[in-house]
Amino acid sequence: MDLSYTQAIITGFIQGITELFPVSSLGHAVLVPAWVGGSWKALTTSANSPYLTITIALHCASALALLLIFRNRWISLINGGIASLRKKPTAESALFWRLVLGTIPVAVLGLIFEKSLRELFSKPLASAAFLTINGCILILAERFSRRSKASESISESISEEDSQILDRVSPKMALTIGFGQSLALFAGISRFGITMSAGLMRGLSHRAASDFAFLLALPVILGTSIVKLPKLFAPEYSHMMGPIIAGSITSFIFTYASVTFLVKWFKTRTLYPFAIYCLVVGVASLIRFA
Fold first, then answer.
1. Residue 123 and residue 285: Cα distance in Å, rounded?
2. pTM to 2 decimals?
C-alpha cells in the first residue's frame, strides 16, 4: 500500500498537535481514520499498511521539536547527572535521576507489552472508551489536586518549578509515575495527561506539573523512535521517503507550535478544556462505533 503526500501531511499534523496535548495521539491515530473511513481506514487496518512505519518518523520529529524547546534544560540536567557520578550531587542531578526513574517502567513495559496491547486495544470502540476515561482522569486530577503553597527554592540556581518537583516528587513517586505512564499503551490514554495529573495530585502547580510532564515525555518518545528507526530504511519503504519526510516536517512544526502554546497555557489555565474535549469526542465515538 502506498502513502500519499496528503495522507502523510495530515497524519503529521495530527501527530504534532496531539502528541503533547493531554488527549492521546495514539487514540487519535485510531479514531480519525475510523471516522473518515475509506482509504484512510484501510491505512490503519491493512496488514500491508505503512502507517505504523511512518508514525516512527513522526514521533522522532516530535522528539526533536521537544528537545529543541527544552535544550538548555536538558544540557543542565545531563551535566548534573554526570556530575553526580563524580560524587558532586546538585539539584539538577536530583531532578535528572527522578526523570530516569520515571522513564524506566514505561520503557520496560513498553518493550514487553506494546505490540500485544496495541493490537488488542487499537480498535475504534476501545479507543473511544479509553479516551472517555482519559477525560475523567483529567477532571479528577483537577478536582482533587492539592493546592498547597509553593515551596521555597531549594537552590538559587534552579527555578521554582524544579524546586516544587524536587520537593513533592520523591524518587519513589517518580518511579510510580513511570508505571502510570504505561497506561498510554492503551490507545486513548494520554501519557502527558497521566504525568501531569499525577503532578497535580502531588500538589504541583499547573506550570510545574506540565514542566515535569514535558521533561518526562522526551526520553520515552525519543527512545521509542530511535529503537524503531531502522525500520524506515527497509527497501519496501524507499519509494515513500518523500511523503514520510513531508509528514515528519509537518509533525516537527506542529509539535513545536503545540508545546510552545501549552507552556504558555499552563501558566494560568487548567486541564478542564482538554477533559471536556476528550469526553465529547470519546462519547461521540462510543455512539458511532458501538
1. 11
2. 0.89
